[in-house]
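ok trying this again, last paste got cut off
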Amino acid sequence: MFKPARMKKLRIITLDKYADSAVSSLHEAGLVQIEDISERIQQDAEWRQILKPSSTSPFTGKISSLLMKTSGTVDFLKSMSRKEKGILPLVKGFINPPPIKKVEVEALDTQELIQKAEKILGEVESKTKPLEEKINQLDSRKTELENALRVARNLSNFNVDLGLLEESDYVSVIAGKLSLESYDKFMGNLKDLTDEIVVFDQDSESKGFKILVVVTVNKHTEEVLSQLRKMEFERFEFLGLSGKPDELIGKSQSELESIAHEKESILNQLADISAEWFGELRALKEELEIEKQRNEVFSSFGETEKTVLFEGWVPEKKLKNALLTIDTSTEGHSIVDVTDPDVEKDEIPVQLDNPKFAKPYEMFVHMYSPPNYREVDPTILMAIVFPFFFGFCLTEAGYGIADALIGYIIFRGLGRNSKTMANMGLIMIACGLWAVILGLVTNSFIGDFFPRFIWGDTAMALPTTIPSINSFAHPENILIIAILVGVIHLNLGLAIGAYNNIVRGDMKEALGAQIVWFILEAGVILLALGYLLLGGGILMYAGIGVLVLSLIMLVYFNGMFGIMDVSGFLGNVLSYARLLALCLSTGGIAMTVNILTGICAEMIPLIGIVIAPIVFVGGQIANLAFQTLGAFINALRLHYVEFFAQFYIGGSQKFKAFRAKRKFTNIGGK
């Protein structure tokens, strides 16, 4: 808590015959982050004398190939599955998604898994491949028929067998569609082309176009086509077509209907196959992904003729379990060297270690950057302050209730199958509750909804309102609170920054970057107290002296540019005024929507009573969406830009345990 989890460095040596077992056990346990030592072996002469880099398992290529094939089959079957249509299934899937059904699988070695995958894929492919080929044939035939239908409809006014329009040894027939403007130009150019040409034309069903049938001898075909191409001529292809247009239209439509019915039948068969096999194939895909990861990790190891060596990191709290896992999986034939990390030389991965209530906010810290191994982890502070800042920005009880309900729906719905969504739901609930509390004490519940529409007196306030911080009557007091909150928040960041620097032994940085601001603030407070309470006197002179001392320290530690940092610090403090701005904008816009609703109901005859609820609901939903997004972004900004800037270093690697991610499978007995 307040610090990343303490790490231990592991170096494991075991016999090569136990390597697979050790890797599999560690993978399932998910306790250790395995480091790649292959590059170190190649670069370090001493290590090269003892070890050589290991290579991936010889089965890795086969596993990768099967994984690609399985992924393609899973995607295909997913696209073929039956889906409920309409908005209700979509809403139901958001609010109450079905739990993921896990498949019980055996713990197989690589060769057994390959055999299993080949068997399942062969069985599924034997059922799907003929149907896929049939669909491709039907789609190809459908394309031909649609082209025939298009040509026949365009040439419907030409009562001629289309088979007669095919090119012969001496004559070419060109048919297509041309705009009226281009048609006139083409007909005007005919005399310059050749006399050995006949043009038949009809008006097209598309306005502004003509249907042409041009008959000419073969030697002039390219010349005619060249002219037509310049005019964006749409040529019809009637190769293989026969029969008059009306006959062809009827025949094509009938066959297209037959194809549609046949394709629907095939899709139903594929949907049945998807329902039968999708779950098992999805589980197989996960098994192959896990096996591929296990096989590839061996390239990070070093080896001798009979042993393998690998290194890793483990959180101190999980060290005992990790050692037991290694010992059990190698039947005691292993040596494990456990050491403390060298904080100056080692690139130590960071795992945040926070109480349960703060866990959801770890993703915000990781979004910025994992903290340095030796610095303070701000997650707990963020878990306390972030929802408060969100609530301050919103300060609207009605909207807070809506946000909290949305958070609960996300937590109980999408959060059931997603840890990230569960965390977002919990954060939204906390943020919404703070908005409710602050909205009630500052007299804002959907703007002035109760005074305006329920009590009929806009001068009245909610019974929960604290008069001195009524947002509609005393915004100046809320501004003072916002600035005070900002000063406290910044000072907390400065205190953490000073602590981090002192721990690292950098006292100069602590004095020049953090402690100096405490001295400056003390000078301002003494000056203000002396002036306000005593009208001058020793406190005032003491304040001036402390202020001068702080300015001297700024120049001494940071150079002349240190004086400019005063304006930057003041800007950081004033940045917290955004809490007031967003607070007032939320309530103000909500009140404006209420006023417009009243105007619609009172001043628009007859339909006003219908329009008013639409204006109210639409306006409040839009305001809720925009203000919630704004509150979230600004609460995050006050942490990232103002707060973290006072102390945060970050830049470490996130601890990534070598873990088998089992979302769709459970290991059963062999």
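PB: full thing came through this time. The longest strand covers residues 7-15.
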